[in-house]
Amino acid sequence: MRDWCLIKRLKCVVWNLMISAYSNNGSSKESLQALMQMMKSEGFRIHSMTVINILPACVNLGVLKQVKYLVSYAKSGYIEMARKIFYVDELNTKDIITWNSMISAYSKHRDWLECFNLYNKMKQSKLKPDRMTFLGLLTACD
After folding, report:
1. Beta-carbon neighbour count of residue 107 at 10 Å?
2. d(CA 134, CA 52)
3. In angstroms, how far is CA 120 from the centroid of its own chain?
4. Which of 16, 40, 51, 53 is deepest in the core (most CB within 10 A)?
């Protein structure tokens, strides 16, 4: 039984690596197809790392239009521009994905203070944090 669990974990890691490779190399469609195949053939449930790996593909395909520029600027190192988009742009109705994207952006730039400030503002907006929120916060503390 123990060996079976190890094999299943390794398969999950391999699928996530494939999804990440497709996403990071501009093959967004293939990334989503790999995700669907992973869920259908292997019966895997989506893991937090899977979400992190698939998010760039979703942004590239326009599935998450409202965070596209925010993620692009943050990824390119323009955290100030991402911040301006988050606060100034037409994002008056920020959803959990928008908040988590900005928290993760600050986290990538090792700005833990801003991560937690944003987390507090998110809670004040009556939005309930999810696993991705906490993953962003924990990553900032690394």
Report:
1. 23
2. 13
3. 19
4. 53
3 state SS for 45-62:
CCCHHHHHHHHHHHHHCC
pLDDT digits (tens, 9 = 90+) for 60-88: 776 666 566 777 777 777 788 788 777 76
Rounded CA separation 69/74 (Å): 8
pTM here is 0.55
Q: Are 103 and 136 in contact (CB under 8 A)?
A: yes
